[in-house]
Amino acid sequence: NVKETGRILLVDYSDVQNLSVTTIDAARFLHDGGWDSTLRYFLTAANKSDTVVVVDSKDRRLIAKIPVDEIPHPGRGANFVHK
Question: Is the pTM of this model over 0.85?
């Protein structure tokens, strides 16, 4: 299972005959996550590592590994749009 390896695979399906796969070293034991309100950044929890990982899907790179005190669970939560 890829999530146990500590890597995130980003796959570009815009040309299914020539898939582009980007591998990002993250943290082991990735569990759950969700997108921010802009749908650019993906936050995922690495439960056994007590870390939240942030990935920039546009630039296809790791932004941050944020250490936390307890098992993280960022999930989708609520995104508010103020007009």
Answer: no
